[in-house]
Amino acid sequence: MWLSQYIERMNDKADSSLSRMLSVLDLFSDQRLQWSADDISAALQVSIPTGYRYVRMLTDSGLLQRSADSQYTLGPRIIVLDHYIRQADPVLQHGIPFMKELVAQTGLDCVVSALLGQQLLDTHRELGQAPANLSYGRGRPRPLFKGGAPKVILAGWTPTALHKLLDARIHEVAAAELPTEWPEFRRYYSQIRKAGYYLSNGELETNLAALAAPLHHSDGTVAGALSLVTSVQRMAVIDVEKLAQLVMRAAKDISARMP
Does a structural domain hold residue 22? Predict the structure, then answer.
């Protein structure tokens, strides 16, 4: 009995140490792209030897690399992993031909977005005739309550999941000028779900508009969003209903082909 308990404690300790070591990668952001081993140790509240051990192991694996002045940045292994992610992504495997077709039909940029955990990321973009200058690209998390893509994704959530999200991030909801009372919040997303698409006009970036429709897994759950992006001025002279039909049809075709 004592042996099994001892092994379980050792496993828990190892899992905790691995989790803390991998949390080093979470320290990197647009605001801070370089860290010293000492600063990493302080941020994670671990001893200096432990912090240096984490850095050494991550550097040996290629997840970190040493730069000038004993600073560390994210390593080249992440670029390789991103390549594998692209190759394995079922949305991209089946969706890129339809994205190219949408670009050919409309001349607008076409973007696929996905919710990973509670981070919204653009995963692929096909450029149109006059490519938009997007602040957010592949790998840079986007706000969860502004823009077409996150709204059509959240509209597909169950009421229970949506309610929990509201409770957990109510300050972000308020900052996005969305309803903070549950009945109105639920009604807002229900209307988007019923429409089947959402037009974002200057919400995320004041000069850009996007029309988004949801992508679905075979079981009906939301897999992501397909969007056409252009300037606010150009969207103002486009037949939105016709554009919505094109995007929704492409999203449906992509969804039908995903495993």
Answer: yes
Q: What is the CATH classification number for the domain harbouring 199?
A: 3.30.450.40
Examine the domain organization and report whether 112 and 151 are in the same domain.
yes
CB neighbours of residue 1 within 10 Å? 5
Helix H or strand E encompassing 57: helix 48-60
- What pLDDT was estimated at residue 15? 53
Judge if 109 and 229 occupy the same domain: yes
- Report the chain's C-alpha Rg in angstroms: 22
Residue 83 covered by a domain: no
Domain limits for position 8? 2-76
CA distance 200 to 142: 14
Q: Which pLDDT score, from 0 to 100, does residue 10 have?
A: 41
Calpha distance 31→131 (Å, rounded):
26
Identify whether residues 35 and 112 lie together within a single domain: no
Instruction: Considering only residues 232 and 7, tell me which one the structure prediction assigns the higher pLDDT.
Output: 232
DSSP letter string, 89-154: -HHHHHHHHHHHHHHHHH-SEEEEEEEETTEEEEEEEE--SS----S--BTS-B-SSSSHHHHHHH
Decide: helix, strand or coil at residue 226. Answer: strand
pLDDT at 144 over 70: yes
The answer on pLDDT for 30 being more than 80 is yes
Structure confidence by residue, pLDDT tens digits, 52-95: 999 999 999 999 999 878 899 999 999 898 888 888 888 888 88
Q: How many domains does the chain have?
A: 2
At residue 6, the pLDDT reads 33
